[in-house]
Amino acid sequence: MRRRHLEMTLEKLSGFKTPDPLKEQYATPATVAAELLHFAFMREDLLDTVYDLGCGGGILAIGAKLLGAEKVIGFDDDRDALEIARANAKKLDVDVEFVCSGINEICGKAHTVVMNPPFGAQVKGSDRPFLRKALELSEVVYSIHNAGSLEFIKKFISPAVITDYRIIDFPIKRTFRFHKKEIQVIKVEIYRIEKR
User: Fold this and answer.
1) Could you give the CA distance from residue 108 to residue 138 in angstroms, rounded to a whole number?
2) Where do the domains of the chain lie, and which CATH numbers do they carry?
3) In terms of Cα–Cα distance, which of 194, 191, 185, 192 is closest to 26?
4) What pLDDT is attached to residue 174?
5) What's the whole-model pTM score?
6) CA angle 56, 62, 67 (to 5 degrees)
């Protein structure tokens, strides 16, 4: 599936109904999801089991399944978000399992983890448990972070390494009262992290 076709398909999915600002529940835009997933697909990292940590409405999990992942499980601690994720999977007729779990309670093994963790804008360091858990669960991780995080992420994940990354625009729609603009575009980095 071409990236543009994937993006158009993912645009049909619903996001959060009542997002929580403390959890930084921003819907991952279809453009960003398609970029991450195409990046992983081209590296042949979506063939086996894929986990989506903090899956929200399930856009990354569903996209991974559309691109041929054998088994996909999305994890989130928000039951309402998981209901939306299940409805989204049904809408596109894909078989994805969604599990209600806090980040520290997730167990199992995956070949690849895909995720858009909190950036730590509201609660400093909130991305760290996601990175720790992702590296515990899999050999390869694709993760979205604020641009300029490269050196911190390199140190934090060591001895794992960043093998490649992309810098892209992330349009954030006005979601919370404290947002001033209808759309704020920020730069983010998508990292491919590998255990060594």
Assistant:
1) 9
2) 3-194 (3.40.50.150)
3) 185
4) 61
5) 0.91
6) 145
